[in-house]
Amino acid sequence: MESLNTGKKNIVPFPADFLLKLEREVYIFLSLTGGLTSRSILLSAFKHYVDPTSMLYSGKNSQDHLYMLFQNLRVVIRGLGKIGESEDIIILEEYKQNKSDLALLDKSDKYDVLLKRIKDCVDDSVLSILQKKKAT
């Protein structure tokens, strides 16, 4: 958070883009390992990333890292598709409710395309969870 809020890049030991990339790798790792703790962390991350009023999007430098923030949301959604449970489907559907508000953060075509891809990831993740449920 501090990396997104400070206007000075030298105050924090690591720049925001490095930390966001590292966070993305952690989410990928958690998706691969699975388990209750991994799922809990991914759900918590999803709730922060899907909320357009989250502190993630209101930092002084958040706009500079918006693409990476949306990419992390996409990774979290894909992870939940791998390790999520049927009750997570309702939570994943929150993205569709918040998509238009997230789009207001930047109205460029680049973000519009990315947000549509994220919606597709939500649909794929829901399908994946449902298929896992059928298989058991």
Written account of the structure:
The chain is an all-alpha fold. It is built from 8 helices and no strands. α2 runs parallel beside α5 and α7 (94-103) packs antiparallel against α8. The relative contact order is 0.14.
Mean pLDDT: 93
Estimate percent helicity.
over 70%
Shape: globular
**What class do helices, strands and sheet pairing give?**
mainly alpha
Beta fraction? under 5%
Write the layout of secondary structure elements.
Elements: H1 2-5, H2 16-33, H3 36-49, H4 55-58, H5 66-83, H6 88-92, H7 94-103, H8 109-135
Helix pairs in contact: 2-3, 2-5, 3-5, 5-8, 7-8
Keyword list:
136 residues; mainly alpha; globular
Q: What is the gist of this entry?
A:
This protein is an all-alpha fold and 136 residues long. Helices cover 74% and strands 0% of the residues. The chain has helices at residues 2-5, 16-33, 36-49, 55-58, 66-83, 88-92, 94-103, 109-135.
